[in-house]
Structures are given as C-alpha cells and as structure tokens.
UniProtKB/TrEMBL annotation:
This is Helix-turn-helix transcriptional regulator. The lineage of its organism: Bacteria, Pseudomonadati, Myxococcota, Myxococcia, Myxococcales. The keyword Ubl conjugation does not apply. It comes from the Bacteria. It holds the Pfam family AraC_binding.
Length: 292
C-alpha cells in the first residue's frame, strides 16, 4: 500500500504475502496514518491502488501536492511514484493486480478507465457522493472478509466485488486535468505504451520512438521516476499477462510463453522463475490450491 511502513499501522491480512507474490488478486486493509511522516523516497507499486479516507486528513505527493480529506478517494496507477506527508487519517486501502480483469484490450480493461485517466494527467483524487462512499465502503468490507476466508469460490466472489468497486469509481465525476512535470508525463506515456504493447517484440528503442524521445532520455526518466528500468517494466507487464493466463486458462506453459512474447519456452520459464521464485507450472499449482 502507498504509505511507508514505519508511519502507517495496518490491520494486516494473513494474505498480504500471497498478494505481494501475486498469488492473490486483491488485498484490502484498514489504514491509520499518523503524523509526522519523515520524508523519504517515493513508493512505486506494480499494482493499482484505491485509498478511501474515512476520517481526518493526509498530505500526499502524487503528480503534485494534495490534501486528502474524509470522503476523498485517491487513485494510484501502477508505476506512479507517490509519498505521504504529514497525516492524521484513517481509511481503507485496496490494492489489485490489473491482470485479473483480463488482458490488454479485453472487456475488463474498460474498468481501469479512472486509472488510465490519472496516468494521462487527470486529477488523482475523486470526491464521490455520500451514497457512493457508503457503497464503496460496504464493498471494501465485504472484500476484506471474502479475501480473509479463502473458501471455495472466494476468488470469483472477490473479482465480482472488485468489479463493483471499479464500476462505482467510473461513475464518479471524471477528474479534471492537472499540471505535471515533463518527466512525470514522459514516464507515464512510456508505461502506458509498454502496458499496451508488452506482448509484442518490444525494446527501449521502440518505446522511445513511440513517445518521440531518445532512448537514453526515456531510460533515464523512467528509472528516475519509478525506480525501475524500461526493461524491468516490460518484464513485469509480460509476467502479469502470463499470470493471468496461468490462472484462468489451461493453456500449456510453452503456449503461454509464446503469447506473452517469448519464442523460447526455456527463456520464458527462466524469466518467470527469476521474478516469482518458482516455475510457471508450480505457480499455477499454488494458485489453484485453496489456502488452508
């Protein structure tokens, strides 16, 4: 979640490790952020985040400086640097791996509209109505309960509840555009292009050409803004699509490797193991086995 561990108290779910290992699609936590928060490096996640503030207020740096107040919703796309400032607030945090909604261009992609608009430079803070906040809070509580139970059918229920949250966020008035630094805008454009084209033959040079800048400049900006290289983001997006296919299809590992951009299945397995610590087949067995 988007706050530094030493400044935030979490009602941590037993499934946090599974979420961080990308074995579970969603994590919901109660958040308590107390002041003061020492300044430090910005956080960057590979998953999307929703923060619903229920009490108090909190400063946040994310494409500008904002003050989150009770009732506000903060949206953080994958790869967006963000950092908490002085805070005294409570709320709920929801993190989810976008691939669980479907591959790029699939029907689930439309549910990511609010995050895509933030990535394109729109305001990252939404102000839902009281009725909308109540619905969001109810669904987050149900998500927390469903994830923690990990019973048969829980994953299907979790995805259904997640979709309700995302549909509600789409209904909230679209945020207005806000000014951002040229480097942040370039990094976001590069990440958006990578997410859309990651399963194609892709390189730093191709990303740089797509955003109209030199390869060296794009490489430096993306590394400075996100803490990761362009190559690492390409790998992350390919692995996300591989996880989605391993989770929801019965395709062979070699077929999945080819569909996410690897002609050599051995290279695909090696890359997958480097990221996840296990082979694709072992990872599939893990996520298909109910937690005990």
């Amino acid at each position: 979640m988007p706050s530094e561990p030493h400044s935030t108290k979490h009602d941590i779910l037993p499934s946090r490790r599974e979420f961080e290992e990308k074995r579970l699609p969603v994590l919901v936590e109660r958040l308590q952020v107390r002041s003061p928060v020492p300044r430090g490096p910005s956080a960057v996640h590979t998953y999307a985040v929703v923060i619903l503030v229920t009490r108090g207020q909190s400063q946040v740096r994310h494409a500008g400086e904002w003050m989150l107040r009770a009732g506000d919703v903060h949206l953080i796309p994958p790869g967006d640097p963000h950092r908490m400032g002085v805070s005294d607030a409570e709320g709920w945090g929801l993190g989810f791996h976008p691939e669980v909604l479907g591959g790029a261009g699939g029907e689930g992609a439309s549910l990511l509209g609010p995050w895509l608009r933030v990535r394109q430079g729109c305001h990252p803070v939404l102000q839902p109505t009281l009725a909308q906040r109540r619905r969001l809070l109810r669904w987050m509580r149900l998500l927390k309960d469903e994830v923690s139970r990990a019973e048969r059918g829980s994953e299907e229920a979790v995805i259904s509840l997640l979709r309700l949250v995302l549909i509600e966020l789409e209904r909230v008035s679209r945020p207005a555009a806000v000014p951002e630094s040229p480097s942040a805008g370039l990094s976001r454009k590069a990440l958006t292009y990578i997410e859309t084209h990651c399963v194609e033959p892709l390189s730093l040079a191709k990303v740089a050409k797509a955003v109209g800048r030199s390869a060296a400049h794009v490489a430096g900006v993306v590394r400075q803004e996100t803490g990761r290289t362009v190559g690492e983001w390409i790998l992350e997006c390919r692995m996300a699509e591989a996880r989605r296919r391993l989770r929801v299809t019965d395709e062979r590992v070699d077929i999945i490797g080819e569909r996410v951009g690897y002609a050599d299945v051995t290279h695909f397995i090696r890359q997958f193991r480097r990221v996840h610590g296990v082979t694709p087949a072992a990872w599939r067995r893990r996520v298909s086995t109910p937690a005990t």
